[in-house]
Amino acid sequence: MKSILVSMLLLSTTFCAVVPSVKKVDYSGFKVIRVASTDDVKDQIESLAAHVLNPGKSTEIDVVVSPDNVEALIALVAESKVLNEDVGAALAEEGEMQTYAVPSESWFTAYHPYADHLQFLKDLQAGYTGQSEIVTVGTSIQGRVLTGIHIWGSGGKGSKPAVVIHGNVHAREWITSMTTEYFAWQLLTNATFKSLVDKFDFYITPIVNPDGFVYTQTTDRLWRKNRQTVSGNTCVGRDINRNWPYKWEVAGGASTSPCSETYKGQVAGDAPENKGLKAQVDSLKGSRGISLYLDVHSYGQYILWPYGYDCNLRAENDAQHRSIATRAQSAIRAVSGTAYTIGPSCSTLYATTGSSTDYTDVQGNATYSYTYELRDTGSYGFTLPANQIKPTVVETWAGVVSMLKDA
Ligand code: 0X9
Ligand code: ZN
User: Fold this and answer.
1) What does the record list as coiled-coil region(s) (predicted)?
2) Does residue 232 belong to any structural domain of this protein?
3) Distance between Cα 350 and ligand 1 center (Å)
4) What is the pLDDT of residue 76?
5) Mean pLDDT over residues 172-187, rounded?
């Protein structure tokens, strides 16, 4: 017994000695700078940056840079503009994490820990057991369950075409889980939307990248990818929006380097999160069909539709995609003036391969597939202040309601 105790003690002290305690990245004094990039300096820019915020762009890149690297960065490029003087101060404006109380409007006044997001969804569902259930969409690399809510109306469970909504694909895009939770909350609690609930079966998963999301709360607020390792490499994470198994192999819209923010993975669909999301899309395709797929991201204020992998290709119903997006754009603007840019994703934003909406359009046979990029256009970027949560979720919901009416 004594020897067991001694060895346990020894084990725990050795363990403490080798495992460093998790220290959160301190972004005090770091700036966000928008720089005019060219191919010859792109690698140097990336090596000076703590994070690239819009890693697909090639000409105008937003980078987070430490005070020590600011001068070197500016010297490297022809043009630069400081978007944020102090990322640490912006993080403070995100507000304190709020402890959880039952689902109510006040949920949308603060950001929340991962466990509370799960509790919010469970409590919301518990109030509407006759028209909703909690669904699991897969499991992350660290074993967290991708948790969603299925909502149906008077036709009964599973009787209507599906609307599939994914949030927090990218870990740092916190406003997107708040927003997709607002959709679920409105559908269940606001009788105004009964006709929409009766028209579709909704599958809303607010956090499809739980490991990354937790990592942004414990360690690095600006983490993007999942937390999957690559054998023989120290860099972590696959970009879930570059790992879908459609046109994954096409060059130019993702990175093959495990250290890149847009690392595509070793094989198409080799991220467990993607396996689960793909299975969800495939199974709904095979049963009732998907009317509308929404992948909710931030930031930039865009509504985008296929294709990402080729800037010259258009979806066969490109004109309908555009007209539905145009009405959603007006509906958003009508709420408080927020201006969205709309268009096919590759030609409007940048090329992406293995992205969700190309998969849902072609393989998932969804009638409409859109990527939303929520507020803002770069001043706060991913760290949108708590006082912008409510206005953002409300205007986005107006856009989505418009789409649901049209779809
Ligand atoms: O790069 C992305 O994955 C998205 N932008 S973000 O800043 N949130 O990372 C844009 C994806 C849009 N393109 C396609 N879905 N094809
Ligand atoms: Zn994103």
Assistant:
1) none
2) no
3) 8
4) 95
5) 98
**Does 344 sit in the ligand 1 pocket, CB within 6 Å?**
no
Ligand 1 and 265: CB distance under 6 A = no
67 & 148 share domain: no
| Separation of alpha carbons 402 and 407, rounded Å | 9
Ligand 1 atom with least separation from CA of 297: 8
Residue 99's pLDDT is 74
Q: How far apart are alpha carbons 283 and 45 in whole angstroms?
A: 43
Going from the Cα of 241 to the center of ligand 1, the distance in angstroms, rounded, reads 7
Distance CA(395)–CA(334), nearest Å, equals 8
Same domain flag for 68 and 205: no
| pLDDT higher at 4 or 81 | 81
Does 386 share its domain with 327? yes
pLDDT on residue 95? 86
pLDDT band per the 50, 70, 90 thresholds, residue 96: confident
Rounded to the nearest angstrom, the distance between the alpha carbon of 53 and the centre of ligand 2 is: 10
Q: Residue 240: nearest ligand to its CA? A: 1
Check pocket membership of 355 for ligand 1, CB cut-off 6 A. Answer: yes
Q: Is 308 in the pocket of ligand 1 (CB under 6 A)?
A: yes
- The finding on whether 243 has its CB within 6 A of some atom of ligand 1 is no
Q: Which atom of ligand 1 is nearest to the CA of 53?
A: 7
* CB contact set of 227 (below 8 Å; sequence gap of 6+): 140, 141, 142, 211, 212, 215, 236, 237
The pTM for the full model equals 0.91
Residue 349 Cβ inside 6 Å of ligand 1? The answer reads yes
Q: Which among 228, 310, 309 is positioned nearest to 275, based on CA atoms? A: 228
- Would you tell me how many other CB atoms lie within 10 Å of the CB of residue 256? 11
For residue 6, pLDDT beyond 60: no
Co-location of 171 and 281 in the same domain: yes
Helix (H, G, I), strand (E, B) or coil at 177: helix
Centroid of ligand 1 to alpha carbon of 7 (angstroms):
50
The CA-based angle 394-395-396, given to 5 degrees, is: 90
341, 394: one domain = yes
Closest ligand 1 atom number to CA of residue 295: 15
Catalytic (active-site) positions:
373
Give the pLDDT confidence of 362-403 residue by residue, as tens digits. 999 999 999 999 999 999 999 999 999 999 999 999 999 999
State the average pLDDT over residues 115-142: 97
